[in-house]
Amino acid sequence: MQTPISYFTDLTDPRVERTKAHLMEDIIFITIAAVICGAETWNDIENYGKSKESRLRQYLQLPNGIPTHDTFNRFFSALDPDEFEQAFLSWTKDISELTDGDVVSLSLGQVKVDEKSNEITAIPKLLDVLAVKGCFVTIDAMGCQREIAARIIEKGADYLLAVKGNQGRLEADAERTVRFAKPSSEWIEEDFGHGRIEQRKCTLYQDLSFIENAEAVSARTGVLKIICIGNWMFHSMKMIAGKERAMQLKIFPRFVVLRLI
What we know:
Order of helices and strands: HHHHHHEHEHEEHEE
Shape: elongated
Structural class: alpha+beta
Largest sheet: 6 strands, mixed
Number of domains: 2
Number of strands: 6
Distance between the termini: 31 Å
Radius of gyration: 25 Å
Mean pLDDT: 82
């Protein structure tokens, strides 16, 4: 496998020659290493570089030391984002294939949503550039689409997709499943404090007999299970007469579809 720096050497340097006080490869390497370690701002990246300078010199040239935060900012503001993304994804893809999932790899992708469209059209494009084989993909209700679920399966990943009213009868079918089917497993957690009791309950259903066209849906999307997540909060309060009564507030359950083999 190539060194991480080698994946970025062919990028187009956006700077004019007289401003190249630091090597492009040094700037990129420090930035990626800093972000992986939790850096969130340009100042964080500069501080990371300075704190690790002696170690970084084992791998980088650093002819003028560690770049300033302004240098990092100006460089990446001018760098072609699509060109950088392709180089970065090439690196993470090779790591994923080399380790076959034994080593955690970082996947990064970004697709701009068209002005007259929404995330539904952008998600499949994003999946195409991400190395998600063996991963667990979670998306909100916007991504609960048969085409998206099928694409995730094609990429060799599993998924957890939120269910709302945007998928025809699926939400109603999930409600019927919870009402009439027998759960295969259940998990409950309770918290006590501040005069109240909160209970969180997660129930798993593998019986898909209440799902319309279940066989056709499963064949294409691989849906194997339905999860119901519900919260119930019990709040203790004193009445004027001095008697204490418990008031129960039920938060309507949320549903998700799961494919996990």
